[in-house]
Amino acid sequence: MTPSDREGLRALAEKATPGPWRPEQDTELVWGACDPDDTTTYGMGVPLANCIKETPRWARDVPRFHLDYDQGVINAAFIAAANPTTVRALLDENERMRAALGWYGEQARLARLIHSEGDAGRHALSDDGGKRARAALSPTQPEEVK
Known about the structure:
mainly alpha, 2 domains, 3-stranded antiparallel beta sheet
C-alpha cells in the first residue's frame, strides 16, 4: 500500500458516516448511525449498504458473479466490521509500526559502523530492548518511546 493509498483511505474514513456500523441480523443490510442517539428508522440508524441478494441480470451467465443470500449476509458483516473507526485504527497501527521499523533500521545501520557511531547504534538497540516494537504493536495508544 502506497503512502497515497493510505492517505486516501484515511480521508475516506474521516468523511464516512460515523459508527457504530452493524449488519442487520440475518439480512444483507448494513446500518450506520450518525450519532449514538440516532433514532431514525426505528433506532437502526441510516442504511449504508445493501449487499446483493440476487445476481444482477447482466451477470447471470458469469459463474463468479452468482451471489446468494448467505454471501450477502457475510458481505454485510464484513462491511460493517470495516467501519471508519476500524480503518483509522489499522492505519494508526500501520504508522506506528512503520515508525518503529524506521528507527530499528537506522539503529541497525549505525550499529554496523565502527567507533562511536557504531557504539551509539548498538547502545540504542540494547537500551531499547524491544520497547518500540511492543509499543507499535500495542492495541492502546502508546506513549512516545524515548
